[in-house]
Amino acid sequence: MALRHSKTPKSIAILFIISITIIFFIFSIFSSQSSPSSPSFIISKTQNSPFIDYSFVSSLEKFLKSNLNKVVEEKKGNGDEGIVKKLDNSIWEIENELFYDKDSVFPVSLPIKVYVYDMPSKFTYDLLWLFHNSYRDTFNATSNGSPVHRLIEQHSIDYWLWVDLIAPESERALKNLVVRVDRQEAADLFYIPFFTTISYFLLETQQCKALYRDALKWITDQPAWKRSQGRDHIMPVHHPWSFKSVRKFVKKAIWLLPDMDSTGKWYKPGQVYLEKDLILPYVPNLELCDAQCLSETQSKRTTLLFFRGRLKRNAGGKIRSNLVAELTNAEGVVIEDGTAGDAGKAAAQSGMRKSIFCLDPAGDTPSSARLFDAIVSGCIPVIVSDELELPFEGILDYRKIALFVSSEDAVQPRWLLAYLKNVGGTQIRELQMNLAKYSKHFLYSHPAQLLGPEDLTWRMMAGKLVNIKLHTRRSQRVVKGSRSICTCDCRIPNTTNSSPLS
């Protein structure tokens, strides 16, 4: 009895605290042993961690604060013949040593080694500050119907790749795939961190063109550029208008693009092709609807087909008006005219989360940011764009998450709705499950995440390295009068038409 009464309220409280501490300790041990390869682990960490930022504006704010006084002085390039030859000899010595190393798998050994140019601030930090200090003022300043700040955000791949490359290695998840090197002779590739989209939209036309000319001179004066004529240089030109006035002079570089256009309006013949360039996804405008969200919204997806956007576009996007005429007032179809402001974003997100299928027709170019909004919303894309090229298609199979319809079929009376109504419930569920799985491949973030778009960019880039070295070597030894260097210009365009030769 004496022992029983010795447990005072104070001692009980102490025992309670100790018990809670022990339970928390045990839970921590088990949590630390959880497999990081588990999809549920990745999703919870990726979506809920306060250390991962998926917002361009928020991430930029933190980046600029941490580089508040960062200024890169103007340094003139020195690409005279002697320096270029010295660099070439240094690269050969390193490659030769790797080639004969029994433990090496040269020329595609990982991690990929990237030299990031330290360009003058007017091409990098000054432009980021310009956006940061003015994006609120440009919210309603539209270009071709969309908010300027949103166009910059959806084409901000140059920012996401750059901030990952220059981050401390201890903070990077992709260091086994790609690393930044300090010596040019050690590099597989060279990254040009010029923010072409920001300069295009936020500078006056003549000021922008002058900056483009300055950037062109700076880039082409570099010894590494002269050595390869830019073939091993990565040039982010993700908006189809960016760098347009001078990009014909850098057409041998690896361009990071949203798509490829065959009309000649955006890219001239011979400037872009899949063997050389890389297609990267737009930054999604909508919030992620993950597997749990998809499950919760399943019963609310009562709309068969949804589309919200500009109903009339130029060039390849002219099909939109035909589709609108065919689908307007059809049962189970919602067609809305709208742009990408805050109200439009909310309406698009609500509409996509209430729909089974989302129509994705070509815009002014074959691609559309709407595709990636549909993917992260769990809405099955119905792609009507005959010459569309897709990001990371060497890795991802888009047939598992989308339906592809030719323009010829889509505009036939009542054809498209009949086709969609004939898609079975089992196939719909499989497509939706794959959307939840694939969505992480399109979410740019800082720090960059494994299997995110930055990761897949470098996986695709690794596949280009041997071809880059091949064409660089050929260009260095070709003599006057020899046959022209192969540029892969002669190719059959991508098309979903039944007869590609028609």
TrEMBL record:
Keywords: Glycosyltransferase, Golgi apparatus, Membrane, Signal-anchor, Transferase, Transmembrane, Transmembrane helix
Source species of the chain: Lithospermum erythrorhizon
Membrane topology, from the record: Single-pass type II membrane protein
One Pfam entry name: Exostosin_GT47
Keyword Transmembrane helix part of the UniProt annotation: yes
Entry's Gene Ontology molecular function annotations: glycosyltransferase activity
The family this protein is said to belong to: Belongs to the glycosyltransferase 47 family.
Predominant location: Golgi
Name assigned to this protein: Glycosyltransferase
Keyword Transmembrane among record annotations: yes
Transmembrane spans: 12-30
Subcellular locations according to the entry: Golgi apparatus membrane
